UniProtKB/TrEMBL annotation:
InterPro entries: EF-GSTs, Glutathione-S-Trfase_C-like, Glutathione-S-Trfase_C_sf, Glutathione_S-Trfase_N, GST_C, Thioredoxin-like_sf. Residues 83-210 form the GST C-terminal domain. SUPFAM superfamilies: GST C-terminal domain-like, Thioredoxin-like. Keywords: Elongation factor, Protein biosynthesis. GO terms for molecular function: translation elongation factor activity. This is Translation elongation factor, putative. Belongs to the GST superfamily. Coiled coil: none annotated. GO terms for cellular component: cytoplasm; nucleus.
Amino acid sequence: MSQGILYVLKFSPRSTVLTDLIKYYKLDIEISTDTESDSFIKQFPLRKTPTFIGNDGFQLTETIAIGIYFLSMIPIHNLLGDNDQEYASIIRFLSMLNQEGAMSWAGAFFRLSGRLPYNKEIIDEHLIMLNTIGQILDTRFIDGSDYLVGDKISYADLYGVKLFGIALYTLLGEPFLKKYPNFAKWFKRASNHEFFRGQYKDIKFPEQQLTYPG
């Protein structure tokens, strides 16, 4: 019997990191994109994704909370650190990537692609935030560290790859990687992890950052 249903937004990194988690660890969780049904809206009037409903009626929203809950279903994974300090640091990076990172990518990309009304001031603010995060991560790897926390890949790295994978492909492009070379090395290393099953093996990022067509 399935352990529940995960409702997702197909291309959102907040959702795709969870679907990858389900597939890689073979969790018995159904994945659904049916977030417009009357039953879903009745249970979740805010229509937030991702959303998890367990087979016992347990309900959970927010990608970090769902990710940690899913990881609790896996006997051995080593994705949440080896001690309390590493665990806290992983949550710190997850929070930054999920809040400032994901919001800034969506806020800039949706306005530059026409999904939201164009507003240069707002776009610039979001791009500044993404560059601030890029600088923070680039500085993190100056000492030669391979991963965000500790000496092995963590859930923070996995989420970071999903976020920047789509941000680089749709918005930031190669200029961002050239500007932050330590970050670029980390992205290449982490995205080649077996968890992603070759998703980024042959990916080509745009030569230029996305600009408004008008």
